[in-house]
Design goal:
This protein is an alpha/beta fold and about 550 residues long. About 55% of the residues lie in helices and about 20% in strands. The protein is built from 17 helices and 15 strands. The strands form 3 sheets. It has a 6-stranded antiparallel β-sheet with strand order 2-1-4-5-6-7, with helices on one face. A 6-stranded mixed β-sheet has the order 8-12-13-3-14-15. A hairpin with a 2-residue loop joins strand 6 and strand 7.
């Protein structure tokens, strides 16, 4: 419950203070006196964005502060969830600094606007003049039915599952796009991969092939040079081997004379053994050298394949070609495995839709269960408000599609007169009738929501006389279970209030300011008389005003 409201340096308001109580409170004032300004300031406490232009004196900060008694409303869990300090007498404050910066505080702790909005939804409902038009808005119609059906937890669960479904659907779309792109490239990638695989790439193969190519291309030169080398080593009497043996024999004869000669002998003996081994290998190499045009052609062909692949892929080594081959294997696999991944994704979406359908069916059942009672209550209240023949029909049909709040299609239809046909409520009702229907809806919601405070901004638009008297009775009845504040121009409603405040303008030294004061006794009689008959108050208007108060 709102227990006090302080507004400083806001628009036409210099400094006003209101102390409020439970029950039914009335606020009156001439058009343009500042009632909407007060509501604008109050909406800042509920998380509305601040407007620097609303500061009255640009050299000072604007401060709006509201105190709420929340001891009876079980809000500790909400405070904990928003990481706020819980106080039974909670104070919300908004400040707009001369710099244009806005700050918010809950129980003197800095808070963000989202926390104000979450808390504000549980503390206060401001019914503006424009909200009556929302009766024809489908989202508002769902909001009313879901409030009566206590669907908050089901809707939260549904929306969480819906978010997961959107993620899965986005992933599936991405998979399909990747598959489409992979399909375009698949044939080309497969061709490149096959080409590389047919080359049977092995690390070091290029060097080996190039060496073998050189051997096969130079058979005649190899034969001549190897043969000559063997001949120079093995030739009788003048060959290197014969000369080395003779030198070794010479040193052997004198090796016993000195250790130096012995060492030289041993070294010559080692050279002799090494030269014999070299001669043997040269002979073996010479035996292996033979012309093989077929092998030469084959080796040359394999080398050309490697050179062409390196040129095509702009690389210089076989190892780089092997790396490209591995990458192509992955790309081809993505395309070949895409169908399996898409099938898996489609299955996950199907399962998620089954989960959503179950929650949506629960939502549908809960909504359907409260509609008959709600319709009956609305029609009863409308009968009291001068619409005895008005009938409301609420159509609820479960669809195949998933919407943001379930699978239901909801439509409120109204037949305002006896024998009349049903039509959309915004088309079937006049402005005054919409006001009455909205009051009926709000009065029913109030019993379910247990909201501490509701403010009606001219809910009486388009009505007068006995209907206004009936509306006043409903507002007064609502005030017995919650705090109801009504801004009104009708004396029939103003007379039913437990307390009465008047907003008015007055001229200051160099400006006009808005003030508010509580009316008591004769002041209240005078205000009602003026609302009845204008500024020239007659005796009959005074008598009528007293009758309304009594």
């Amino acid at each position: 419950m709102l227990t006090s409201l302080s507004i400083k340096n806001y628009a036409l308001i210099e400094d006003i203070q209101m102390d409020l109580q439970s029950g039914f409170t009335i606020i009156t004032g001439e058009t343009g006196a500042g009632k909407s300004i007060m509501l604008g300031a109050l909406s800042l406490l509920l998380g509305k964005r601040a407007d620097y232009s609303a500061i009255r004196d640009k050299e000072k900060k604007c401060v709006i502060e509201g105190s709420f008694n929340i001891s009876s409303y079980d809000l500790k869990a909400l405070f904990a969830e928003e990481d706020l300090d819980f106080e039974t007498q909670t104070i919300i404050r908004r400040e707009i600094l001369p710099s244009g910066k806005s700050r918010a505080f809950i129980n003197d702790t800095p808070a963000n606007l989202s926390s104000l909005q979450v808390l504000g939804e549980r503390l206060l409902d401001i019914h503006s003049q424009h909200e009556t038009l929302s009766l024809g808005d489908n989202d508002y119609q769902f909001l009313v039915i879901d409030s009566l059906a206590a669907n908050a937890s089901r809707l939260k669960q549904y929306q969480a599952e819906m978010q997961q479904l959107r993620v899965l659907q986005k992933q599936l779309q991405q998979l399909r796009e990747e598959q489409a792109q992979a399909t375009k490239e698949y044939d080309y990638n497969l061709f490149l991969l096959t080409e590389l695989q047919q080359a049977k790439l092995v690390t070091g193969m290029q060097e080996e092939l190039e060496e073998r190519y050189e051997e096969l291309s130079n058979v005649e030169q190899l034969t001549d040079q190897l043969g000559s080398a063997v001949n120079h080593i093995q030739q009788e009497e003048i060959g290197a081997a014969a000369a080395l043996r003779e030198a070794k024999n010479n040193l052997q004869r004198i090796s016993g004379i000195s250790g130096n000669y012995q060492q030289l002998f041993e070294r010559l003996q080692s050279l002799n053994i090494e030269l014999d081994d070299i001669a043997t290998e040269l002979e073996s190499a010479l035996d292996k050298v033979e012309a093989n045009p077929a092998e030469l052609e084959q080796v040359n062909a394999r080398l050309q394949v490697l050179y062409n692949l390196q040129k095509k892929h702009a690389v210089a080594t076989v190892d780089e070609l092997k790396q490209i081959e591995e990458e192509l294997v992955k790309k081809v696999a993505v395309s070949e495995n895409a169908e399996e991944e898409i099938a898996h994704s489609e299955k996950a979406i199907s399962e998620k839709k089954e989960d959503l359908h179950k929650i949506a069916t629960d939502l549908h059942a809960a909504r359907k269960s409260v509609i008959p009672k709600f319709v009956k209550e609305i029609e009863t209240i409308l009968a009291d408000l001068g619409m005895p023949n008005a009938t409301l029909k609420i159509e609820l049909e479960q669809q195949k599609d998933f919407f943001h709040n379930g699978q239901d299609k909801l439509n409120w239809l109204l037949a305002a007169n006896k024998g009349g046909s049903y039509n959309e409520i915004k088309k079937a009702a006049s402005g005054g009738e919409l006001s009455r229907i909205m009051l009926a809806v709000k009065s029913i919601l109030a019993t379910y929501s247990k909201l501490p405070t509701i403010i009606f901004d001219e809910i009486d638009t388009g009505v007068s006389g006995d209907i206004a008297q009936k509306m006043a009775g409903i507002l007064q009845k609502m005030g017995k279970n919650m705090q109801v504040i009504a801004i009104t121009h009708l004396p029939q409603i103003a007379g039913k209030g437990d307390r009465h405040f008047k907003i008015y303008k007055e001229d200051a030294v160099n400006s006009t300011i808005t003030n508010i004061k509580e009316l008591r006794g004769e002041e209240r009689v005078e205000e009602l008389a003026m609302m009845l008959g204008g500024k020239n108050i007659s005796d009959s208007a005074v008598a009528h005003a007293k009758a309304l108060l009594n």
